Amino acid sequence: MSNSATKVGIVGVGRMGANMARRLADKGFKVTAVYDVRREAAAELAKELKCEAPQKLSEVTALSDYILTVITDDKAMRDIFLAPGDNLFIGAKGKTFINFATLTPQVHLEVEKAAEKTGAVSIEACMASSITQARQGTLFLILAGDKAVVEKAGPLLEALSSARRYVGEAGRAAQVKALVNMVMNINTAGLAEGLGLGNALGIDLDVLREIFSQTGANSRVLETDGADMQNREHDCYFSAEHAAKDSGIALGLAKEAGVKLPLAEATLAQYRLLVEKGFGDLDKSGVAELTFKGRGKK
Predict the structure, then answer these.
(1) What's the domain range around 92?
(2) Is the same domain home to 153 and 208?
(3) pLDDT tens for residues 105-151?
(4) β-sheet bridge partners, residue 68
(5) I need a labelling partner for 53 at 20 to 30 A (CA). Which of 33, 43, 116, 277 fits?
(6) Using CA atoms, how far apart are residues 127 and 23, in angstroms rounded to an integer?
């Protein structure tokens, strides 16, 4: 695959998708089209990257060899691939679709099956990373689907990531990513409770976080979110609303498997409460608004 000869379209150019487009352009890929339901976002990015911002999804497919999707949920995924009238599979024979969002495994299976019928291929590249890493090309990608297709897309995937792990057939990456986010959310909610209680007891939180970091209370979330919880700095890198969605996906998988997950259920309840209170657009660290005394009000 020659970067300059590879035409890439991107559907879903919020902060993650837009940064991925910028990264690919920096690495010499030919970004030919960007699309978003927020037309102004697509138009602004297209102007920056000097590419097209088509009105139709089928036009993105026509302009691209590889089409990357970075969308919000199962409904949005079905809308872009399976909606009548206009969708990405129109004229898709020979095209490759790489789907990056955290969705249910079932929707990935549906898309893969529909892709086969049109003569296209579809793989998963679930992201265990943040907006900054998308811009830097240091994503961690969890890959699934036809292994030969994954390998063929290697140069593009390598341009976006510093690490990749192939986990199996279609749907498997979505399962793994749901578990990643379920555990991350549990860790985040637990840290919020520990710091909230420490604050209520009058413990110096700088000291408490240092002690956490040197003991069994340490975690990656402590590093990324601890100070933000303490200082109420919840600039969004991974929203509370998305945390609720992803914990819900994991619990759906648990129900199918016949496994009880009380900690995951409690964590989902906390994030749903946060969303109900109007804080869904905060970073996941915003769950501390429910555990620190005197917080939790707009």
Answers:
(1) 3-170
(2) no
(3) 999 999 999 999 999 999 999 998 888 999 999 999 999 999 999 99
(4) 10, 98
(5) 116
(6) 15
Same domain, 161 and 52: yes
Stated pTM of the model: 0.92
For the chain, the domain total comes to 2
- Would residue 96 count as lying in a domain? yes
pLDDT for res 4: 75
Q: For the sheet containing 7-11, what is the strand order?
A: 30-35, 7-11, 66-69, 96-99, 121-127, 139-144, 161-168
Taking a C-beta distance cutoff of 8 angstroms, is the pair 9, 63 a contact?
yes
pLDDT at 209: 98
Looking at the predicted structure, is the pLDDT value of residue 296 above 80? no
So what's the pLDDT on residue 130?
82
Beta-carbon contacts of residue 290 (< 8 Å; ≥ 6 apart)? 192, 270, 273, 274, 277, 296
Q: What is the DSSP letter of 85?
A: S
Q: Report d(CA 21, CA 14) in Å as an integer.
A: 10
The confidence score (pLDDT) of residue 1 equals 63
Is residue 122 within 8 Å of residue 99, measured between CB atoms?
Answer: yes
Going by their DSSP bridges, the two strands 121-127 and 96-99 should be labelled as parallel
Q: What is the CATH number of the domain that holds 21?
A: 3.40.50.720
Assess contact for 138 and 115: CB atoms under 8 A.
no
Q: How many H-runs (helices) and E-runs (strands) does the chain carry? A: 13, 7
Q: Is 257 exposed, middle or buried (0-12, 13-18, 19+ CB in 10 A)?
A: exposed
* Cα–Cα separations (whole angstroms), residue 103 to 47, 74, 139, 181, 293: 30, 6, 18, 12, 34
Chosen domain end from 123, 138, 170: 170
Both 146 and 184 in one domain: the answer is: no
Mean per-residue pLDDT for 82-104? 96
Same domain, 158 and 229: no
> Residue 298 falls within a domain, yes or no?
no
Note whether 159 and 194 are same-domain residues.
Answer: no
Average of pLDDT values for 187-206? 98
